Amino acid sequence: xxxxxxxxxxxxxxxxxxxxxxxxxxxxxxxxxxxxxxxxxxxxxxxxxxxxxxxxxxxxxxxxxxxxxxxxxxxxxxxxxxxxxxxxxxxxxxxxxxxxxxxxxxxxxxxxxxxxxxxxxxxxxxxxxxxxxxxxxxxxxxxxxxxxxxxxxxxxxxxxxxxxxxx
Length: 167
What we know:
- By secondary structure, this protein is α+β, with helices and mostly antiparallel strands.
- The chain starts with a helix and ends with a strand.
- A hairpin with a 2-residue loop joins strand 2 and strand 3.
- About 30% of the residues lie in helices and about 30% in strands.
C-alpha cells in the first residue's frame, strides 16, 4: 500500500472516507475481519455484513482502448467487458494489469475503492445500483466497506450509469 494511503488511514480514514467526508456526503463505514483464504473479497464482505450480494458492489479496472476504466458492479455478478467498452464509447476492453491498477489507484487488489483514487479514472456504475437506496463499495482496504447512496457515488466519481454486469 502506498505510504500516503497508510498515513491517511492512521489519521482516521482511507482516501475514500476522507473524500466522502470532504464532500459532505452521508455514509456508513462497515468493518469486518478479512479472511485471506476466502475465495471472493466481495462475497466475503456481503456475508460478513449480512447484506444481500446485489447491494455490495466490487470495483474492477479494465483497459478500454488503452485507457484504464473503472467498473463498479454487484459482487453477485461479473463484468461484461463488451458492455463496458460500449458504455464509454470504446471498442475493446480487457481486465487491466493488477500491478498497474494498484500503482494508478493507490489501492491494493481486494481493497480498490471507486472513491479517493490517486488518479481519477473514467467510471461506470452498473445500472442495477439505482434500484437500491444505498449500496456498499470498498472503503479502500480489505475488510472495510462504505455504504452510501448510488446517486452520491455516481456524482462523486462522475460515473456513467449503464448495464455493465452479467448475472
